[in-house]
Amino acid sequence: MKSRLIGGIAALVLAIIGTVVLMNYVSNADRRAQASLDSVDVVVVEKPVPAGTTVQELGSYVRLRSIPGVAKADGALTAIDAASGKVTSVALEPGEQLLGSRLVDPSERVTPGAVAVPDGMQEVTVLLPPESVVGGTVRAGDLVGLFVTLTDPANQQIASTQLVFDKVLVTAVQQAPAAAGTASEGTSAVPGGSSFVTLARTSTDAAKVILSARTGNIWLTKQSVSTPQSIKAAVSTSGIFQ
Q1: Which CATH architecture has domain 39-108?
Q2: Cα distance between residue 146 and residue 130, in whole Å
C-alpha cells in the first residue's frame, strides 16, 4: 500500500514537471514566432548599383524598409553610416538586402574577371580590334605572345613584324558583347567591337608596349606555359616569300 502511494506521488510529480516543461516550450515557441514576425528595418536596393559605388553615393540607390524579422538576411545592414569610406564589391540588383559583406575597402576590390598583378610588375592597357586578340577570345589569366608591326619610316612600302614579348600575362579584358544572332555549330559569335586588353609588364616593357601602340600595330597570339620559347626574328614584307 505504501509503495503504491509513493508510486502515485512520483507519477503526479512527473506529470506536473512535464506539464511545466511543455508550457515553457510552447511559451518560448510563441515568443520566437512572434519575434520572427516583428518588423525590422533593413537597407534594401531600389535601383541597380554598379560595382565600385561608394557608400556616400549609395543614398540614391537604396532605402530603409521594414520587413518581418524572419525575412531579414544574415548580415543585412540596418544603416550604412557605419560603412563610410567603403565601396560595393559587386553590382547590386533591385530588391536585394544590402549585406555588410558587399561593402569593402577600395583597396580590396578586384574587378570581376581580373587576375592579380605579379610582384614587381605593373599594368598597361592597349586597345585592339577583334582580329588582334585571337578573334576576341583572349581572357584574363591567359598568356599571350605580343607581336609588333612597324613601317619603315624611310620606305613606307616596307613593313616588318616581330615577336617582342613571350608569355605575357593578361590581367583583364574589357570587351563589347558579341553581335546578336546565333552562331553555327563549332563557331562563336563575332565580337561587337574592340577590346581593352591589360597586360602585366615591367616598367621598361610597358614603355615598349605603349610606344608600339602609338607608332605601329600590336597583335596578340595565345600561348601556354608549355609554349616553346620563340625566336624573335623580324619578318618584313620583302622577305615573306623567302
Answers
A1: Alpha-Beta Complex (3.90)
A2: 15
